[in-house]
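Our consortium's second objective concerns turning raw sequence data into structural hypotheses that experimental partners can test. To show how far this objective has progressed, the report includes one record in full. It was chosen at random from the queue rather than selected for favorable results. The single chain below, 289 residues long, was entered without modification.
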Amino acid sequence: MRIVLLGAPGSGKGTQAQRLAERSGIPQISTGDLLRAAVARGSELGLKAKAAMDSGRLVDDSLVLGMIRERLAEPDTRAGFILDGFPRNLLQAAALDGLLAELKQPLDAVVQFEVAPAELVRRISGRRTCADCGRVFNVLTSPPPTGAAALCPSTGAPHRLMQRPDDNEATVAERLRVYAEKTQPLIAFYRSRGLLRVIDAQGELDAVTRRLGQALAASSAERVRRSAAKGAARPKRAARAVKRRSPTARATARRGKAARKKTPARAVRKKRAAGARVRKPGVRRRTRR
């Protein structure tokens, strides 16, 4: 299944994407993770991305799309993928449509996470990220596990939790403003395509997970229904095409065409029989001066 998760910073889409990836076996593709990996490598693109991320601005579309293209070319995305954090504006959405059409991997569903603004600020202030594996936790809503599960899969040691630079209060306000201006129009964009599902992303983590599962199941059922309806329509169209090509249909069409050609001549004869003057085509009527 190919999914896009939409929502403001702190709406929980990253946490739910991780859960969904573990349950379904399809990869979570977070543009934030891709960009942070580029920053960690110290590449030229990574340095450009860092400047934008630290100030709360969106990273250049062409840069993000190129990274998405590379990630979708990897083998683990063949069964599907979960896009988390992309697209973020209408231009990115149109570019993604073009890319997925080229790859013949159209989206199956887009889920919008709805959370009140005050709750968003509270959540973001509690968010922590493992400096080694990039896994996201929240000291308020989804704290790091304890015991053996607390070990980082990258190092085998306990997670080294840090607050991202773009999670400080000043940057959060700017990110929410950018989201309202640039990202919210995507809701109408995907709704018009019949892909959008909206869920209440507030409350307990497990409750949100259930709502997400229900939304995806409903989307899958709707897709199957549309596919069945489209398949049922194909035999009818084929039958009409065969009927149009049959000798009887062609003969009927010829008679109708001949009848249409005769109609003007019959009308002319009737007018002449009634004593009316009939002007020949192409002959101008003379006017006296």
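The partners drew two points from this record. The CA atoms of residues 71 and 88 lie 17 Å apart. The chain has a mean pLDDT of 81. Both points have been shared with the crystallography group to help prioritize constructs.
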